[in-house]
Structure formats: structure tokens, C-alpha cells
Amino acid sequence: MTFSALALAGLSAQWTTLEPDRLTTALNGKQVDAGLVDWLEDTSSRLSALPAEQRQRTAKLMDAQLDTVTDLLEHSRYTEPVGRRLHLLAASLASACGWHRFDQGQHFAAGKLWNAALANAHAARDRDLGAGILSDFAYQSIWLTKPGTAVEPLSQALMHTRHPTARSLLHLRRARAHAALGAAAACHRDLAAAETALLTDSPDAAPAWCRWMSTADLAVDSGQCLLDLGRTEEAHARIDEGMNLLPRSRDKTRGIFLTYEARSLLQAREVEQALAVTHQSLDLAHRMGAERCVTLVRELAPAFKIYRQVDGVADLMARLKATPSLS
Question: N or C of the chain: less Cβ packing under 10 Å?
């Protein structure tokens, strides 16, 4: 863990010297003041801002933050504005904790947390955030090869958000679902809508849940759509374009699309190139601590087996067999 000792010391000092009395009072049913919520929001923001490979090691801190906020909501008194902030914070934390469970392949647990996030977003009357959580459910469905169940949640989400960046992401995810279903025309309509929305200026900042959305995401996801639709050459060009644009902070996304690329290379019988890409993807999955990404790489093993005579395939199979679970 590379979270700096200085940052940890600062958080520790704040918690031990400033917050316990205030927190204890609130948890005993007294009034929650805005200062405590300020501190909880600031701490949660710092944890969420850590790079992905560090966030996996601070998951228990996020869980503890969520437990604290939930206790405050259930057992303390607060004004309406403070209550709304607490619900928003609970929604954000539950969403983040859900993504951690999702990365570990704990899909039922992720769904329970996202359900809690959705309830808190509703209580806070934040439709944009609710739309983002619906899109998380849809992404999970696509990941679990159930794209048919993703289309309606994404359509509902599109009805409840207006920011162009948010709409771009929702259209892009719905395009992925349509592509997996083989619905080419619907997929291309959504890809076009995603591109138009992403290029649309807005005077307001994008909602936090989609602020990372970029032209790199549009390119790599468009490439995956084209792969699903059998347009391999165009797909590789789009994925390569997007991969070159992705910053290092998005290495989990990079690892996922490297796996997709490896699968496509195997289908084209480009075995040596597929080997190199698969090793790179597995390295990234381990660094991110993402069990679902390791599982995605493992699922390539049957496709490699028919090429056992190719140099390097036996070594990869042995590495996959020896790879421990990250959960």
C-alpha cells in the first residue's frame, strides 16, 4: 500500500482529536451538525480519489464510512439539508463499495449495495445519481452476458438525466447491450448518440459518477461493439485508438480491453500476438487486484488449448493454472 504515511497520520489525527465526541453524540440520537458531514464528505472524497490499485486496499475504510453514515441516518436527528447530504454520501459510498464487490466477482453483494445506493439517491431526490446507479446494474448485466436485461434500465436512466456526458455514457452502454444482442441498427444509433452527446458543451460540470467518461472510452467501447457485430478490422482500429488515449489511472479498463483484443486475435489465429496481449492483461489485473479481470483472462484458456504446439502457450496455461484467487 502506497497511501502516504503523512496522509494517514493526518486522517488519524483528525479522527482522534476532533471527531469522536461529535460522532458519539450523533450516534446517540443527538443532532448531526454540518461540520461532521463536512468531514465525512472530505474523507470519503479522499478515499475515492485514490488510484485503483490503492482503493482495493482501503475497501474496509470505505465500508466503515458507509456503516457510519447509515447509522447516522437511522439513529440520529438532522435537518432536511443535512439529511439530504447524508443520503447523497451514503449513495456515493454504497456505489463505490458495490464496485469493489463487483471487481472481486461478488455480484450478489454488489447488487445489494447498488440497491442501497439507489434508495439513498432517491431519498436525496438526485435523479442524475440514480441514473448512474441504474447504469451500473446494466453494466453488470452486460458483464454477466445477460445484455437483454440491460436495455430497459439504461432506457429508464436516459429519461432521468440531462447532462450530455452522462447521456453519452448511457448511450454507449446501451450500444454495448444492443451489440451483444446482435441488434446492429440499434447499436449504431446509440453509438452516434453517444458521440454527439460527448461533443456537446455544457455550462455545468458532469455528475461525479460519469466525470471520467472521455473520447478514449467512446473509442474502446465502440470497438467492442464492432467486435460483437463481426467487424473485426474496424474494431481493432477503434480499440487501439482508445487504448492510446487512456491514462494510466484507467489501467483496469485497459486490462479488460486487452482481454477482448486477445480473444479477437485468437479468432483470427494471431496466436503469438494474443499471447503477448494476454500476459499484459493478466499483469494489469493482478496490479489492480480485480478478480473479475483475472477471471476474464482465465476464460481465454479453452481458446488457447487448441494451439498448445505454439511456443509460449504451455507457459501461459501453466501461469493461469497457478494464478491464485484474489478474493
Answer: N
Q: 62 and 158, same structural domain?
A: no
Residue 18 counted as domain residue? yes
Give the pLDDT band of residue 52 (cuts 50, 70, 90): low
Same domain flag for 277 and 327? yes
User: What pLDDT does 24 receive?
Assistant: 54
Q: Verify that 136 and 99 share a domain, yes or no.
A: no
Greatest CA separation found in the chain? 71
Q: What is the pLDDT of residues 84-108, one digit of tens each?
A: 999 999 999 999 999 999 988 899 9
Q: What is the mean pLDDT of the chain?
A: 86
Dist CA 14 CA 153 (whole Å): 41
Q: Give me the CATH number covering residue 229.
A: 1.25.40
Residue pair 58/47 in contact by the 8 Å Cβ criterion: yes
Helices and strands, number each (H, E), in the chain: 18, 0
Contacts of 147 (CB under 8 A, 6+ apart): 141, 176, 177, 178, 180, 181
The reported pLDDT for the residue numbered 97 is: 94
- Tell me, yes or no, whether 178 lies in a domain: yes
The CA radius of gyration of the chain, in Å to the nearest whole number, is 21
In this structure, the answer to whether residues 65 and 151 fall within a common structural domain is: no
Residues 220 and 289 reside in one and the same domain: no
Please choose, from the candidates 299, 300, 298, the residue with its C-alpha nearest in 3D space to the C-alpha of residue 324: 298
